[in-house]
Design a protein that fits this description.
The chain is an alpha/beta fold and about 325 residues long. It has 2 domains: about 5-180 and about 220-240, NAD(P)-binding Rossmann-like Domain (Rossmann fold, 3-Layer(aba) Sandwich), CATH 3.40.50.720; about 180-215 and about 245-275 and about 295-325, UDP-galactose 4-epimerase, domain 1 (Alpha-Beta Complex), CATH 3.90.25.10. The chain has helices spanning about 15-20, 65-70, 85-90, 95-115, 150-165, 190-200, 220-230, 250-260, 285-290, 295-310, 315-325, and strands at about 5-10, 30-35, 55-60, 75-80, 120-125, 170-175, 180, 205, 210-215, 235-240, 245, 265-270. The chain has a 7-stranded parallel sheet, sandwiched between helices. Bound molecules: nicotinamide-adenine-dinucleotide (NAD) and thymidine-5'-diphospho-beta-D-xylose. The site of nicotinamide-adenine-dinucleotide has 30 residues, from helix 1, strand 2, helix 4, strand 5 and strand 7.
Length: about 325
């Protein structure tokens, strides 16, 4: 008998990559995907795996007790990717972030008290630590989120700890760095910039463009998360990073070179409110479990850019929705 897994938010960027990896694992018997299909989720992201006999897709809301209650029956491992994930949108209207990222997690944890999964992996983010101006933060660092998005993720982490301590829900928390790879919604830096560059439009770099992110290939992140389900210690927090620190301007210049577009498309625009200067996590705890990123940044980054370039028509309606968001006066 293999494992029965629930992936919430499995029609989004990282969740769909994780589901694609999981179907190939011989000890995985059944994979339920619970996803509300918000603007960011799409069955397109599950192309080639939706008809796999291991997969069952359920459209539903993690904050709804009935939807989540049904989905969590007979589950060994819960992995919660479902979230409102875009910092810029949280600065325009945080209400849905509170509902999904906090109330949704509380609902899942409450249900887990009854359904008793063997592991509950909460997908958090390096953004909960706030800016890390030098060095790297380990898992014991204090939380100092700067945006409504990261505050909602930090609150979820606190709830996870409370349900572990008070009720014994077997929680593990993963705090990943910025992921890049296929199927990311084009509101985020990399797919947004490919879509704009392909239309010969300006690429808006917030502020001076010298903000630093650690770029982690999504498939490396997914391997780390599966390892945590298999070997992670209940009650622990694991940072997941790649130590690939790059300024946004550098990332944008490489992207333009790959697409053979002129550097003059780069333009500095008004900064994001509360913009965190730099993130950098110390990921030695998960390294001790036997994980390391495999991707070579320049190689995988190029493949990612070309993946978006070659699908821009298919991606078009998502790009239009994302740019409409940015065009709103308050955005
Ligand atoms: P995404 O926005 O691409 O996907 C989120 C998915 O969740 C979508 O399919 C959406 O439909 C679904 N969803 C939203 N609200 C829901 C609800 N109430 N009920 C059920 N489903 C709902 O996000 P992503 O980039 O794949 O991020 C996944 C997780 O990883 C998030 O928790 C995010 O905070 C975290 N994370 C992301 C990154 C990154 O670089 N993308 C880095 C660190 C952590
Ligand atoms: O148009 C843009 N111009 C720009 O300069 C956009 C969309 C972004 N940026 C900057 C802001 C950030 O410094 O690029 C950097 C990356 O921005 P995003 O792609 O929005 O990602 P970020 O804010 O770093 O958050 C991401 O990583 C951590 C995910 O969206 C989060 O869900 C995750 O928790």
């Amino acid at each position: 008998m293999g494992y029965n897994v629930l992936i919430t938010g499995g029609a989004g960027f990282i969740g769909s990559n994780f589901a694609r990896m999981l179907v190939g694992e011989s000890d995985i018997e059944h994979i339920k995907i619970l996803d509300k299909l918000t603007y960011a989720g799409s069955l397109d992201n599950l192309e080639n795996i939706l008809d796999n006999p291991k997969i069952e897709f359920i459209r539903g809301d993690i904050a709804d007790p009935d939807d989540a209650g049904r989905a969590m029956q007979n589950i060994d491992w819960v992995i919660n990717f479902a979230a409102e994930s875009h910092v810029d949108r949280s600065l325009t209207d945080a209400s849905q972030f509170i509902r999904t990222n906090i109330e949704g997690v509380r609902n899942l944890l409450e249900i887990a008290r009854d359904t008793k999964p063997k592991k509950f992996l909460q997908i958090s983010t390096d953004e909960v630590y706030g800016p890390v101006l030098s060095g790297a933060t380990d898992e014991t660092a204090r939380l100092k989120p700067s945006s409504p998005y990261s505050a909602s993720k930090a609150a979820a982490d606190m709830l996870c700890n409370a349900y572990l301590v008070s009720f014994g829900v077997p929680v593990i928390i993963a705090r990943s760095a910025n992921n890049y790879g296929a199927y990311q919604y084009p509101e985020k830096l990399i797919p947004r910039f490919v879509a704009l560059a392909m239309q010969n439009k300006e690429l808006p770099l917030y502020g001076d463009g010298r903000y630093v992110r650690d770029w982690l290939f999504v498939e490396d992140n997914c391997r780390a998360l599966l390892l945590l389900l298999r070997k992670g210690e209940i009650g622990e927090i694991y940072n997941i990073g790649a130590s690939e620190l790059h300024e946004n301007i550098e990332v944008a210049k490489i992207l333009l070179d790959i697409l053979e577009k002129p550097q003059k498309l780069l333009t500095n625009v008004e900064d994001r409110l509360g913009h965190d200067r730099r993130y950098c996590v110390d990921w030695s705890e998960i390294e001790k479990l036997g994980w390391k990123p495999k991707a070579h940044f320049h190689e995988q980054f190029e493949k990612t850019i070309l993946w978006y370039r070659d699908r821009i028509e298919w991606w078009n309606h998502k790009t239009k929705e994302a740019e409409n968001f940015y065009c709103k006066p308050s955005a």
